[in-house]
Write a structure and sequence with these properties.
CATH architecture of the largest domain: 3-Layer(aba) Sandwich
Strand order of the largest sheet: 2-10-9-6-5-3-4
Number of helices: 14
CATH class of the largest domain: Alpha Beta
Strand content: 5-15%
Order of helices and strands: HEHHEHEHEHEHEEEEEHHHEEHEHHEH
Number of domains: 2
Radius of gyration: 22 Å
Bound molecules: ligand T4K
CATH topology of the largest domain: Aspartate Aminotransferase, domain 2
Distance between the termini: 8 Å
CATH superfamily of the largest domain: Type I PLP-dependent aspartate aminotransferase-like (Major domain)
Length: about 400
């Protein structure tokens, strides 16, 4: 269907029809917990005159996160990308590391940035997570590890990936940027592989404004990462390790501590919204709302829909129509890392091994969720998508 039959921003300008929402409705609108609790903590930080460098808020935050996830160590960092880089380096990964192409580009960049080649494996179209058979096909003598990604907060096939890693002597770690609060077979994410990397970016279900962490049961690994995030300093004037600046600041930890008290409430809102989206789009043929297993915990933060070839309007036209209504839907993670630079030039034929990734990349839309989304927003989005179907 040609774009001109849909309300685009240009149509709206010509016909003067107002969008459904006066203000943009964002994917990734931050969830903000108890404001007074946060401001109170900021007051304590200012009173303390201790703003960063492993301050008391960061130490409390690390204790609370480790306890929440039932994991021995939480090493807080300034963001998830630096946390990935530090974990990769601390684990001694080198040569080639297998990752999904269907992830945020930070997963691949964290390797490339350190001179390691990300090798892209395909996904299972039902879950959007790594397909272990595809991973197996990508293993070469240069492979040193696998980074599984728990995409949309749904656990990657942890046991299958661990079995592959064990069989080939590879190191397995996870990018758990989406998976704070998720479970795999009832066990909290954070406990699998050598370590798992969390992101607490503003757009995540649980945020510290900017922030990340590596969680692990491994004492030596945790110790190495603590040194690496602080230039390798062990006490004053004593550098014992190569390092960088990956420290979380006190204000970010304060935000995390305040938000942690609201996390159950926020996840409950997300879960309810996810059910409302499913109901609103149930009778729209050609649209599938990605579901999450009822037996596992998930923040339900990501409302992911797929528009298949039977839907009369292309995915890009659906996104344009939603944007015309001021709903800023996203195409995460189109077009797949292998088609982003520098990987597109480095591996121009990678797509031949990634049929499921390439097919999914043309269907996917991520819709707004979080504490600022309610039934009226979901109803209007459902109506807008349903109306496109009527224009068949
Ligand atoms: N691994 C995976 C699998 C990841 O998804 C990510 C990050 C990472 C690793 C790396 O973790 P970090 O280093 O970021 O901690 C956003 C986030 O910046 C990124 O954290 C996230 N994944 C990715 C999925 O989404 P963009 O480029 O889409 O952000 P942007 O600026 O377009 O914002 C997204 C939407 O959120 C917009 O509609 C505006 C809205 N927004 C954003 C911010 C920051 C707000 O309403 N308020 C805000 O404060 O990457």
């Amino acid at each position: 269907m040609p774009l001109k039959t849909i309300r685009t921003p240009t149509d709206l300008a010509i016909h003067g029809a107002p969008p459904a929402f006066a203000e943009p409705v964002h994917v990734g609108r931050p969830n903000i917990g108890d404001r007074d609790a946060f401001l109170n903590r900021v007051g304590q930080i200012l009173d303390n005159h201790w703003l960063t460098n492993n301050g008391p808020m960061v130490q409390e935050f690390e204790r609370r996160i480790a306890q929440h996830l039932g994991v021995k160590h939480c090493v807080a960092m300034c963001n998830g990308t630096i946390a990935l880089e530090i974990a990769i380096r601390a684990l001694g990964l080198k040569g080639e590391v297998i990752v999904p192409s269907w992830t945020f580009v930070a997963t691949a960049h964290a390797l490339h940035w350190q001179g390691i080649t990300p090798v892209f494996a395909d996904i299972d179209p039902a879950t959007h997570n790594l397909d272990p058979d595809s991973v197996r096909r990508m293993i070469t003598p240069r492979t040193s590890g696998i980074i599984g990604v728990h995409l949309w907060g749904r656990a990657a096939p942890v046991e299958e990936l661990q079995a592959l890693a064990d069989e080939h002597g590879l190191t397995l770690m996870f990018d758990a940027a989406h998976a704070f609060g998720s479970t795999y077979k009832g066990q909290s994410i954070g406990r699998f592989g050598k370590c798992e990397v969390l992101s607490f970016h503003a757009t995540k279900a649980f945020n510290t404004m900017e922030g990340g962490a590596v969680v692990t049961h491994d004492d030596e690994l945790a110790e190495a990462m603590r040194l690496m995030r602080n230039f390798g300093f062990s006490g004053y004037d004593n550098v014992v390790h190569p390092g960088t600046n990956g420290k979380m600041i006190e204000v970010c930890a304060a935000m995390g501590l305040a938000n942690l008290d609201s996390v159950d409430e926020i996840f409950a809102i997300n879960r309810r919204n996810h059910a409302a989206y499913k109901a609103a789009l149930r009778d729209v043929p050609g649209i599938r709302v990605l579901d999450y297993a009822a037996s596992e915990r998930n923040s339900h933060h990501y409302i992911v829909i797929e528009a298949d070839e039977t839907f009369p309007v292309s995915r890009d036209d659906i996104v344009a129509a939603l944007q015309a209504e001021n709903v800023l839907a996203r195409k995460y993670f189109w077009p797949g890392c292998h088609k982003m630079q520098p990987y597109r030039d480095l591996f121009p034929h990678a797509g031949m091994m990634l049929p499921n990734t390439e097919s999914l990349a043309e269907k996917i839309i991520v819709l707004p969720n979080g504490a600022s989304v309610d039934d009226s927003v979901i109803g209007a989005i459902g109506d807008a998508i349903g109306a496109l179907r009527q224009r068949e």
